[in-house]
Amino acid sequence: MPRTKQFDEKEVLNKAMELFWERGFHATSMQDLVTHLGINRASLYDTFGSKDALFEQAFALYRSTGRQMLHRFFVEKHPVKDNFKKLLDVAIDEAINDPAKKGCFVVNVTTEMVPGNDRLHQVLLENKHYVETFFREQIQKGIAKGEIGNHVNPNSTAEAIFTFYSGLRVVAKVEPDVEKLQKMVRVVLSILD
Q: Pairing with 60, which of 12, 53, 100, 128 sits 20 to 30 Å away (CA)?
């Protein structure tokens, strides 16, 4: 008779995501996971497979949560440029107020695991494509509403904002100067004028 699990898989996955996000894949041992998650090694393997599989599931949870958050920023009926500003301001706020200075898990995985992990490389490319496509669609909506100039190229502008957002998450970890970061946001968003 199989034993029933004495833990909530979603809660454990969320805790694993936080640990991997803070420490990275290589610096997180199975013993770290057992200790942090509060479940035994056998249960961990039975439920999630391997450390690699748990990491991939935790990273998928982060990306899924991030996409939901991204969509919430643009649901409101504010001008598109205001929504981009709000997104970037929240990134600054999160960086400033995070004592662990975790930054962005996607950026962290990119710098830790690529090159060298072709599977994650593909996942990261897909994520980049998804976010840039979403940004491009928002820019196109802004152009159609007359909020963004017709001269703005939606493709290259979406790519530039994605690149800036990723870089902002790194710079904010190193130099969490709100005033400087907000000035950079204003400069970058001026490309939408």
A: 100
Please calculate the CA angle 17-121-97 and round it to the nearest 5 degrees: 40
Q: Are residues 38 and 88 in the same domain?
A: no
- List Cα–Cα distances, 116 to 22, 112, 148, 153, 182, in angstroms: 21, 9, 40, 34, 35
Map tokens 């902002």 to a residue. 168
Q: Which domain holds residue 37?
A: 7-59
Instruction: Give the predicted TM-score (pTM) of the model.
Output: 0.91
Q: pLDDT tens per residue, the chain (193 residues)?
A: 455 567 789 999 999 999 999 999 999 999 999 999 999 899 999 999 999 999 999 999 999 999 999 999 898 778 999 999 999 999 999 999 999 999 999 999 999 999 999 999 999 999 999 999 999 999 999 999 999 999 999 999 999 999 999 999 999 999 999 999 999 999 999 999 9
How many structural domains comprise the chain? 2
Q: Which of 62, 51, 48, 63 is nearest to 12 (CA)?
A: 48
Label residue 32 exposed, middle or buried (CB < 10 Å: 0-12, 13-18, 19+).
middle
Q: Is residue 66 part of a domain?
A: no
Q: Of 34, 59, 84, which residue constitutes the final position of a domain?
A: 59
